[in-house]
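Shipment paperwork, digital attachment
Item: protein structure file
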Amino acid sequence: MDFLDLPALNHAQGVMQLPGSKSISNRILLLAALAEGTTRIQHLLDSDDTQVMLAALIKLGVSVTQVGDSRDYDVVGVAGQFPQVSADLFLGNAGTAFRSLTAALALSHGDYTLSGVARMHERPIADLVDALMQLGAQISYLGETGFPPLKITPRLGVDGALTTVKGNVSSQFLTGLLLTAPMMGQAVTIKVDGELISKPYIEITLNLMQRFGVNVVRDGWQSFHIAAGQRYLSPAVITVEGDASSASYFLAAGVLGQGPVRVEGVGRTSIQGDVRFAEALAQMGADIVYEDNAIVASAGQYLRGIDMDFNHIPDAAMTIAVVALFAEGTTVLRNIASWRVKETDRIHAMATELRKVGATIDEGADYISITPPAKLQAASIDTYDDHRMAMCFSLVALGGVGVRINDPRCVNKTFPDYFTAFAALTS
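Attachment content:
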């Protein structure tokens, strides 16, 4: 299917049970693999990115068994050392898999090659590589310096375990270092150079490490210390929360389509920072109700533009850019430079496609400003092989205009059933 035509829509109402979180799924898969003991992972996300991680772990010798036809998996941990000490891994465009496996394999004792799709080879990784080499890792670039593909050989022994990583490009670099630090077998201190972006994603990492028995002591957001003698131990059973980033589309639909839409799988007890997307909707004038494991969204009296720093929730912030089409006044999303190095250059892509539906756009290195048109225009939306572009722009149809989504299959990266779920709630 090269495109999907969405009809003009006016209403959204119903209940949405979220698929599992991609960020949590891939972190738990790696932690379960590195742990001692067998872990049953419940409600694992079924998507391209998690399939990439599963395939890589199996290729590295980890025993992974699906429980019947369910979304539960049993993972037999390898206690910090992968059985296969040589492997050639293709990791697609899965950033969570590529960055964390780079760290895990670089701190092990094998020979590995890591590659991905063309876009992955354009996504910078030098900051992570430099930090790992401070810990004795031996990594070389097989293409352009600073970018995948990578060649990893057995690491050298180091007297100390102190490293510094830049914090302003991707929080996945720090996550990779944190998740794999216990493999060093000694105390490890990780310092962050500059401002750390996407802090809520680091909070997810620290929370899950603790669930597997490793505690991290942090000094603000500038230094993280993992004491010696810690190792990952299986919690026996762990459940993946619903995906808070995916929740953003359905919460927005509830607001734009009058609602109510009840999104189940995340709520006030969620460990994911992207639940704060609902706070941004509320600031725009939406009616939001929180429960422990659900959020309900409805239209308020009217929507107004906001000017906000979205450094903490860059993925969910994309949905706000489309909601801005329905608001009074201009909306400005600031401190989103990380959009430039995601699955595509999201600032450029969002600006280009928002203009197609009639918006007036101003973009900069780390911001985008959206002024809505007097009337939305029907458009054919290019998605840039970026799942979030496809899902975001489906919401335009709730403005009563038809929308063509090109390459709709790109949603397979995180949410293969997205358009079916969206259709079930809208009319």
